[in-house]
Amino acid sequence: MLAMAANAVAPAAFAGPPLGQNDLHTATPIKHVIVIIGENRTFDHLFATYQPKNGESIDNLMSKGIVNADGTPGLNFFKAKQMQASDTTTYSNSPTQTGPFTTLPPPNTNYTPSAPSTTAPPFTTVSIAAQYDYGLPTRDLVRLTTGASGLPIQVVDTRIANAYALPDGPFQLTPGVPYDAYANSPVHRFYQMWQQADCSAASATPRNPSGCMNDLFPWVEITVGAGTNGHPQVSGFN
Hints:
By secondary structure, this protein is largely without helices or strands. It is built from five helices and two strands; from the N terminus they run ααββααα. The chain starts with a helix and ends in a 14-residue tail after the last helix.
């Protein structure tokens, strides 16, 4: 916050060029690039099977042949395999890998709400939702009354097809988990989020200069997943 405040009162002489001044001097017709960042979810989480209009292109799981249009594994499914690793001494952004999963650990519900509530979403009525989220447009309040899982907390999420025997790679949430429904999510802790991404200079390429492989998501979850405050998971955790 200090840096932001300092920039807000910086002298005009140190400010950047007026917005739009260089719009006509770009090397390509592209004038602006918009980056969509959904916390620790990726572009492919929502747009993995998006098909662009004629004359346009996209870089997603389907364009790479990792999944098919119906979400099933494609010919290049192996390129998105998830790995196991070892990190028992000093924390590492990119720990030593020990091999892929045979099948993915079954996803669970964690604390996904099981039924509508009067104190937390999804709410039982629109009027109760309005009391808690008064900044939401009235027309959208109904969305806060849907999406309960119908399952207990911290059990295998059987809404997901084949939950106990998922192939080692991306899997489909819909139609079992509709777009307006609640589901578990990847670990929301800073250092664990870096481990999930598995970024290292050794993996950098011209096409992937970040060196991020995004292949340790399930391993991080089953070792120091959400809610443990960095401690190992309880015995028998899945």
